[in-house]
Structures are given as C-alpha cells and as structure tokens.
User: Fold these one by one.
Assistant:
Number 1:
Amino acid sequence: MAQILGIIDIVWRGVAYDVIPKSGKLQLSGMKNNPVVAGRNVHRSQEFTQGKVTISTVLKRGQRHSELYDENEGELQVRCDTGHVYICPDAFLESGPPEISDDGGKLELVWTISKYEEIMP
C-alpha cells in the first residue's frame, strides 16, 4: 500500500511554523493553457501562473504578531510527509497582516511562489 500526502510542514525564512491539520494547500506555479475561440475553432495561448501556499497556524502566548508576518521575500520550504520537499527561494506573503480568530488563535497565511525546486524522496 502506498503512502499519500497527509501532513504539510512549513519552514519560512528558517523558522518552522505549526500547521493546523488539514489546512495546508499547495498550488505549484507553471504554464497554463487558455482557450482562445477564433471563428469556429478553439486554439490555445499560454501564460505562466504563480503558485500559492496556504496554511492555518496559531498565535501563541508570548509570540509577536510581527514574527508571523513579514512583507519581504524569502525562502519558503514546503515539506510533505511523503518525503517531497518544495523549496521556493523568492516566496512572499500575499495575505497581508493576518486576521486572528478567537477559535484557538487561528490565522491563515498565504504565500505566492514563482519558481521552485522539487526534491524527491
């Protein structure tokens, strides 16, 4: 029986974040085909689309909000329990300063990624 993805861990600028289970999402960047209708035919044009990494984490007692949010670019590592690792050297937080809920201090962080390196187990 093969193992499938169950857990995503995040390391942002060298700091590991606690990820709330089942909140992690990874959409890789790459080429996308767009349909273009001309007359009675459909053609395609291509464009590069950015990737996106989304997680939910928590704000812990004694932790500063500014420790979680930084508007500058940096290295983001997405580590999967399957052994796959995606290293994104120029990621940035797109979500803006996070909104914090009273449901355990949960907050969502969203990074945009451009290029990435995939490391296989």
Number 2:
Amino acid sequence: MRKVLAAAALAGSIAVTGLAVAAPAAQAATATQTAASTATSMGTWGKYHSSNHKAYTYGKTWKQNGKVYTKWYGKEFTPKHGYVWFKYYSGGSWHTFSREWNGSYSETWSKHGIKKLYTYTCWGGKFTACGSAHRIY
C-alpha cells in the first residue's frame, strides 16, 4: 500500500512540475505575440484598395533618427490613374498630400516630427473611388 501511495505522490509531483514548466512557456508566447502586434504600426502595411478595387497601395513605414520614412508601392491596371493620399499630424496641425501613378509605381518619402500618419487609395481621380483611411504610424 505504501508503494502505491508513494507512486501516486511521485506522479502528482511530476504532473505539477510539468504544469509549472508549461505556464512560463505559455506566458512567453503571449508576450511575443503582444510585442509583435504593437510593432505593426511601424512596419509593413497594405494592400489598401480604392473603393472599386481597381487600384491598391502597400508599403513599409519606419522611424530613423527622428524622421518617419514611408516606402510605398502603387498598382493599377487600367488607362486611368491611381492616387495615394497621406495625411499626417506634425507641428500641431494636420497636413495632406497625394501622389498620382499609372500602372506600377513606388516612391519613398520622409519627414521630421510626424506624430500620426494615415493613408488611403483613390482611382480615376484625386477624389474618386477612394477607399477607407488606415493608420500606418
């Protein structure tokens, strides 16, 4: 009887130890997932489509030496043009600008002091068939 109780106690302590080892591993995996999800504001973004899905943009945003950089790519496959808009908050006010392209295009731009940055894509005209805005920084 003592051998049975000793075996049960030993098995119980192994099971508890196994759970104790598994718990920190689960916590580490959760911490890694949380860190990865917060890094999405500075990283790759897109495909952000125009409202009619005839144009889209995607890219990458990063900060280096106090400057926010954005490298973006635009694609559209019609005789009309695509437009990417950028809206950013800097120096206490909002600023917007757009870039036009036809076919495939890419460009990099940067600016000091950007606090927030949004983008959206239009097709056929600067204000035509615009998709929803997305925060990229």
Number 3:
Amino acid sequence: MSWITLKTTNARWEAELMQQVLAAHEIPSRILDTGITPYFGAGSPAALQVRPQDQWTALLLLSCPEEEQAGASDNN
C-alpha cells in the first residue's frame, strides 16, 4: 500500500489530532516521526500520511474555514 505525506508539523500532538479527525471519518492514516525523540516535553517533528485516494477528502477535512473564506473573497 502506498502512502503520501499530507501535512508536516513541528509537534507530534498536532499530527495525532489531525489523525483523530481523519479516523472519525474512517480515513486511514499514519504518523511518521521526522525528527529526534521528544526531550522534556518538547515536541518532535512528524508527518501525517494518507492513501493517495483519500488525499483530497483529507485535505478538505483538515483545511481551515478561514482559508476557504479568504479564497472565496479573492474571487469576488
């Protein structure tokens, strides 16, 4: 099975939160640590990956409403 990186973050907890949103919509995902192990509570960089066929649905679920409104106002 192939995976693509959907988002990267500097804190693993952010990737875990995004993964929970996707799981609620039954979209399989996985998290890859891209940095060193956290030390004294510091976050570690991580990448959230999804299957290629779920890419666009996942991007829509994880997008900010402000980004959508900004894009719509640019078109007017």
